[in-house]
Prior knowledge:
Layout: E1 2-9, H1 17-20, E2 21-28, H2 31-39, H3 61-69, E3 75-80
Antiparallel strand pairs: 1-2, 1-3
Amino acid sequence: MNKYEITYLIDVVSKNPEDYTLKCIVEAENEIDAIKKDAGITDLKEYVSEFFPLDCENCTVDELMKFLMNFGFCYTNIKKL
């Protein structure tokens, strides 16, 4: 397992970025699994519909982060530690 630091935004009104940016550490095999694990998603196919299409099997990390914004997950960065 690898360790990843995931950065995401929360809805806070502030001029200080530390107030609305959170980071968490997740252990996972790869970046996509780390994001899914942090979001509590075991099967992305549950989220995919005609309104929010995504190629679950072949998506990139950026596509996944953009896709999950539709559901309130505002991931902005992920890096391997």
